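Pilot study result, target chain (686 residues):
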Amino acid sequence: MKKNLIGHSPFTIHHLPFTIHHLPFTILLLLLFIFSAPVAADSPPVKAGVFEEVPCSISTLKLEERSGGVTCGTLTVPEKHSAPNGPAIQLGVVIIHSFSDALAPDPLIMLQGGPGGSTIDTYALPMLGQTNIRVQRDIILFDQRGTMHSEPFLACPESLAYTQETLDKDLSLEEDIAGSVDAELACRDRLRSENIDLSAYNSLENAADIEALRLALGFEQINLYGVSYGALLAQHFMRRFPDSARSVILDAVVPTQTNFITQIPYTMDRAYKALFSACADDPQCNTNYPDLEQVFFELAAKLDQDPLRVPLTDPETNRRYQWHFDGNDLTETVFQLLYSSEILPALPMLIYDLKDGRSDFLSTILPLLIFDRTMSNGMYDSVMCAEDSDFSLADMAVGGARTEFVDSNLIQADAFKSLCQQWGVPDLGAEIDAPVTGKVPTLLLSGHFDPITPPEFGEMVAKNLSRSYAYTFPNTGHGAFLSSHCAENIVLDFLDNPATSPDATCIEQESGVTFLLSKDIVSTPAMGKVLGLFSGRYLGAAAILSLALLILLSAFIVWPLAWLIRALMDRPPTNPPRWGWAAWLLVWTLGALSSLFLLGIVALIIVEGFINENEIQLLLGVPRVWGPLFALPLLVAGLSAGVVIFALLSWKGRYWSIWKRLYYSLLALAAISLVIVFFNWGVIAS
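Predicted structure:
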């Protein structure tokens, strides 16, 4: 699954390819947004692609484009670089320009994970704000072949449809996986019918695309940043085009010499142990969430016997589902949430909430992942099957891992091999699994809680590179850059001078995870809807809210103005009721409190989301200091009821003029609309 919830987050729960009824098979085919890719030794030289500027189509970029800060375009390259005169494909490109006139000659090119995640979708907003990098150099985002902003986009709506059909069904893991495989194969058949050569979508071609981009834009050398699969892709580029790379940053490192699929039982077990140990060693966490490990596995066993129904709403269609959530789903969901450094502090609280039957957080966060439409399943399957299906179940690292992690992963791994046997792309051979060596300066970043690419993966890659610097961060999950100020500072220092070891003393000052405590949080699902506005969701409701508020605020002008005109013209009011002043005072109070609440929400987002960088945690709840703010919608609802009553009384008693009655009825309608939006967003319920 993928989705930078808000802004940027290596919430690399990037790919929920198969199912979400049981998150399991996903851990392989989806969650793994890592894997290994190859590099051929004897390949024909890559020719420059053709770059063409086009208007930016993403709202995030349009304003920056007008000011000259961004250039959007497409890169046309051969579908297969070995056949330069054959069919061509187009890759989406975004160049985020430096602020400096004396910019460095080597840009930073970002490589997203997945495989199949959209670099542009994930990094456009956060990299626009990377002022420290933009002071010196351009930042280039390009969507790898087959991904969202490239043509063709190998999405698989068949898999999403299967997920939607089975979310509320009680299927066994085997039944669920079989249906998932069928959905993926239906996607394969459709892509083939569209004359798409799936064998062209692999890391060899992907690495050649990077070189074609470098040549097309006229750079002598480039700096590469790759996260997860992007880190693996960067290694293949280093091996094939070492002279083209000034420096390489590998974040959440996948070694070429290790098939990460076989390591999942171990990495999963390791990450869970890290979480449980961190909570047990933290006095506050251990006091508020004692025996977390025991509680978790007892909860999983209970859910297997008595599954929970988790309400989910597709943010694009607003269709509602009741997810049949069992023990397997719990294990896979928390595993995926361990990817996110931002959500990591909330996991003990989440586990205890689920124990008590509360699933608000899952209802808020998981629709962004389960109903994700930005992921390229077709590219994921093509890349994975070409490069990482050459293993046997005997290779699975099951020693020492809990049976809860072993059994489901063996089933999923077997199903993955079965899918690849039918997917129809050739295996790229064992030679691509050789370790990458060389002298390209390389920075390697790892997170202590990373559930899929543990720190030892980074160390494994680093020992074969003569100019490498590897660091582990004690409070991050999958992807440290942009999740840790310390990691960001190390990256900046490394980019300034890759030839020397960067200043990493900040790691010594880094503390472990500061866990969220339920006593410090006011649980509310409302912020998920509010934050959804930043990604273009719920705009209709926002428009209704804005119009209703404007109508209510008009009373501050219309009524006093009407009173003044009557006074100047010496016209007495028409049949005024005894409660007339109370009716208007109620409207003014309603408008003021509604405005105060919305201004408070803006302040909350600015302080907690941007200044304190807690935007992901806002999906779970708000710091208790902001709790009184959420009492205002209840007052708004009560005042709205009063306005409606006064409107009805005005018609029943024929008070005021017909125009004043109509206007007051319009105010009552605006108040009702306001309450409906608040209720729909969960603001009143919270």
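One observation from the pilot: The longest strand covers residues 70-78. A full batch analysis is planned for the follow-on phase.
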